Amino acid sequence: MTGKIAPCLWFDGQAEEAANFYASVFPDSGVKAVHRAPGDYPAGKQGNVLTVEFSVLGMDFLGLNGGPQFKFDEAVSFQVYTDSQEETDRYWNAIVDNGGEESMCGWCKDRFGLSWQITPKRLMELVSEKDPAKSKAAFKAMMTMRKIDIAALDRAIEGVTADA
Predict the structure, then answer these.
(1) What DSSP designation does 30 have?
(2) Is there a common fold for 1-69 and 72-164?
(3) Is the pLDDT of residue 162 over 60?
(4) Which band of pLDDT confidence, cut at 50, 70 and 90, is reported for residue 105?
(5) Residue 26 phi/psi, 5° resolution?
(6) CATH 3.40.50.300 correct for 72-164
(7) Among the CATH numbers 3.90.320.10, 1.10.1200.10, 3.40.630.30, 3.10.180.10, which is that of 1-69?
(8) Which of helix, strand or coil describes residue 102?
(9) Are 19 and 56 a contacting pair, CB within 8 Å?
(10) How many Å apart are CA 72 and CA 106, to the nearest integer?
(11) Beta strand segments in 42-156, E
(12) Beta 77-82 vs 115-120: how paired, if at all?
């Protein structure tokens, strides 16, 4: 690990599989090190993969095979900002089509239970629009979506004026 802080993600024996999956989906990502347990521990045996150091989009993580006691939930998610519909589709589809599941407003969950927000930068621009009618129209459109559709957001604000 190179930084002074990294999130530790608790897995039930899938840390290496998860790290390899994330490295296959996102650029500037990879598995840096796999550490095996020097002795038996509550969730495993000597020689099992205990921790995995990896990066996703340049951010360091530690995957810990800690056992089944703790599960991911939506209280923690990773928001990935995208530059285009193609990039949005690529990340969303990689997560959902590989055992994940869709949710609303750009949220999805991978097969390991980790929540992701695949968020086009255009969405952030539109919901932060100075014209309140446009930001409201963009927000209303987003609330009907699962995967964010940038063209649909742009259509939602077409012709909207401050008087609307």
Answers:
(1) E
(2) yes
(3) no
(4) very high
(5) -105, 140
(6) no
(7) 3.10.180.10
(8) strand
(9) no
(10) 18
(11) 49-56, 59-65, 77-82, 101-102, 107-109, 115-120
(12) parallel
Query: How does pLDDT run across 112-136, given as a tens digit for each residue?
Result: 999 999 999 999 999 999 999 999 9
CA Rg value for the chain: 19
Query: What is the pTM for the complete model shown?
Result: 0.92
DSSP bridge partners of 30: 55
- C-alpha to C-alpha distance for 45 and 105, rounded to whole angstroms: 41
Query: Which residue do the tokens 């530690």 mark?
Result: 62
Where do the domains of the chain lie? 1-69, 72-164
11 touches 64 (CB < 8 A): yes
Which tokens belong to 148?
């964010």
- 84: tokens are 């285009």
Residue-wise pLDDT tens digits, 57-77: 999 999 999 999 999 999 999
For residue 59, the one-letter residue type is: M
Q: How far is CA 120 from CA 17, 107, 152, in A?
A: 27, 12, 12
pLDDT, mean of residues 68-87: 97
